[in-house]
Write a structure and sequence with these properties.
mainly beta, polygalacturonase activity, signal, 20-stranded mixed beta sheet, 9% helix, hydrolase, 3 helices, 392 residues, secreted, 11-stranded parallel beta sheet, glycosidase
């Protein structure tokens, strides 16, 4: 029912996108407002003018970005707006400043807050993050970096056909949002780029991520606390760290993750495949009702992982146990190859063991031989062919 509602909403938005000639639609062309597609002239204010015009319009509105490369500093598109139907059609590329310090301490580069009914169609975001990654990898003093595209406290959002290149940090963040549809994204960053998660979702409900390719240096998709009713389908991931729920238990009073579906995903050469990870320390959070279905692993280091003892650098969590409660997790039709001998690892909390883990038709091999499993404090069942066996 949820998915049907999302599709009806998306179809109505796409119909509007394809008919930008409607008399009732006000079109704000950034070039006509002063933007220069030369990748050198600061065009930030032209985009701000376009947003102000569209946000203040009493009719449906469209922002149009013609082909070319536009140098953009920080953009804040803030609502609430008079109009709840703003289409942003991008035929060009938004380019971040080459000096990473210009946006590197700002948290977000292109930032939407408190908006309703915004649709982004097409376009490329070039975050110019390579110099900042090099600074971080050299352990020099660097800014934290900016997320390329962020939506906060917003609803009825569509992101369709966008490309994101070389983000300084996360490529896309969905935070505190409702009813978000993401499709046809191409996200690209170096495999050793730090903290460049492809799409991060937290404190949000009714998010759908479809038919996208993600190549990055961190999680292809990361799922944070407070995420409910999340649907992920037809994703190609790699390089990267896989699709991860967590890290959870960062805070004691933390919202749970519930009703997540991840299906028809291919992981190629990733560090992890499908992972749930929680800090080994107290928390009131939980993970409940997750389905991983029709997943292919191609030379993945850790294909199936639940880690409730996550404690990098042994800081803030030694000698503690995770309070996160993990239950009703189903792995169905998981196939492919592991780059390490242990293909299935459930390292659950001895205080809050994993409950209701279900393995069904799982076949993972290591160097053309059966892989092995490692399971601690996990209760569940196995159905059909399950290789590696041994957990239940």
């Amino acid at each position: 029912m949820l998915k049907t509602k999302v599709y009806i909403f998306v179809l109505s938005i796409l119909c509007l996108i394809t008919d930008m000639s409607l008399a009732a639609t006000a079109v704000f062309n950034v070039v006509k407002l002063g933007a220069k597609p030369d990748a050198k002239t600061d065009s930030t204010q032209a985009f701000v003018k376009a947003w102000n015009g569209a946000c203040g319009s009493v009719n449906s509105a469209a922002i149009y970005v013609p082909s070319g490369r536009y140098l953009i500093k920080n953009l804040l598109f803030k609502g609430p707006c008079k109009n709840t139907n703003i289409i942003i059609r991008i035929d060009g590329t938004l380019v971040a400043p080459s000096n990473y310090n210009v946006i590197g301490n700002s948290e977000n580069w292109v930032d939407f807050q408190w908006v309703t009914g915004v649709s982004i169609y097409g376009g490329t975001l070039d975050g110019k993050g390579t110099a900042l990654w090099a600074c971080k990898l050299a352990k020099k003093k660097c800014p934290e970096g900016a997320t390329s595209l962020s939506f906060t406290n917003s609803k009825n959002i569509v992101i369709n056909g966008l490309k994101s290149l070389n983000s300084q940090m996360f490529h896309i963040v969905i935070n505190g949002c409702e009813n978000v549809y993401i499709k046809g994204l191409m996200i690209t960053a170096s495999g050793n780029s730090p903290n460049t998660d492809g799409i991060h979702v937290q404190l949000s409900t009714g998010v759908t991520i479809m038919s996208s390719g993600i190549k990055t240096g961190d999680d292809c998709i990361s799922i944070g606390p407070g995420t409910r009713n999340l649907w992920i389908e037809h994703i190609a991931c790699g390089p990267g760290h896989g699709i991860s729920i967590g890290s959870l238990a960062k805070d004691l009073d933390e919202q749970g993750v519930q009703n997540v579906t991840v299906k028809t995903v291919v992981f190629t050469g990733t560090q992890n495949g499908i992972r749930i990870k929680a800090w080994g320390r107290p928390s009131h959070g939980f993970v409940k009702g997750v389905l991983f279905q029709h997943v292919v692993m191609k030379n993945v280091q850790n294909p199936v992982v639940i880690d409730q003892n996550y404690c990098p650098r042994n800081e803030g969590c030694p000698n503690q146990v995770s309070g996160i409660k993990i239950s009703q997790i189903t792995y169905q039709d998981i196939q492919g190859t592991s780059a390490t001998q242990v293909a299935v690892k459930f390292d659950c909390s001895n205080k809050n063991p994993c409950q209701g883990i279900k393995l069904e038709n799982v076949k993972l091999t290591y160097r053309n031989q059966p892989a092995v499993s490692s399971c601690a404090n996990a209760d569940g069942s196995a159905h059909g062919v399950v290789e590696p066996a041994g957990c239940f």
